[in-house]
Amino acid sequence: MIRIGIVDDDRSSRESIHQEISDYARNHHLECELSEYESALKFLDSGDKGFDMLILDIDMPGMSGMELAEKIRETDKDVVIVFCTNLQQFAINGYSVGALGFMVKPVQPYALNLTMDRAINAVKMNQKHNNTDSDTKFVLKDGTISRLVSVSDIDYIEVRQHYLLYNIKDSNTGARIVIKNRGTMQEAVERLSQYGFWRCSSSFLVNIKSVTAVSRVNVFIGNELLPIGRTFKESFMDAFSRYLAKKGWEDPCQ
Length: 254
Known about the structure:
This protein is an alpha/beta fold. The chain is built from seven helices and 15 strands.
C-alpha cells in the first residue's frame, strides 16, 4: 500500500490529480490510498501521518505549500514531496526541502506519468531503506543510562576534544537529544559509514539521509547548519549526488 496525500486549495485541481494518479496506479497494478486536503492548515490539523508521497500546491492561503513542506521536514525526512503549481518560478526553491520535483498546472498526463515513475521509485527505495537501516540499532551510553538508538534517527555526530556528540531526532515525536560518548571520529566513521554516514568536515559526520539542503560551504539538516570543509567537500558532494540519483531525485548541485 502506497499512501499519497494531495494538498491543494483548488477543488478541481485536487480531483483532477486524484483521478490521474488513480489511473496511473491501476495501469501499473499499484495499490494506493489517496487523501485530499483543501489547505496546508487542514492537512496539519488532521494529524494524518505516515504518507509515502505528498503532492503540494505552492500558492495556498494561510500557509503555502513550501511552508508546509518545511514543517513536514522537521519530523519526516523520507516522504516524497512533489510540488504541483502554476508558479513555476518558485518551484526551484523546492530543493531546499528535498522535493523530488514539480509539475506545472494544468498537469498533463504525460508529465504526471513521468513524475510518478520517479516518485514511485523513490517510495520503493524509502521502503527498502526503512526495512533495513531503521531496524539497525546501537546501544549508546547516556550517563548512567544505556539507550537503544536506531541508525536512521541519528542525524549527525560532532567530535569535540575526546568526545562524540550524537545528535538524534526521535522519528515519532521529533524531539532532539544529544548523547555524549567518549570516542574518536575515526571510530564513528568505522561504525557508521556502511549506513550512509559521510564526513562533511573534520568535526562532523553526517547521515546523508538527514540532509535537507546543501550550499557550497554548508550542509543543512532541518534548521541546523553544518560547515563543509575543503578537504571533505568533493567526497561529500559526490556522496550526496549519488544518494539523490538512487532516490530518483534531480541534483541541484549539477
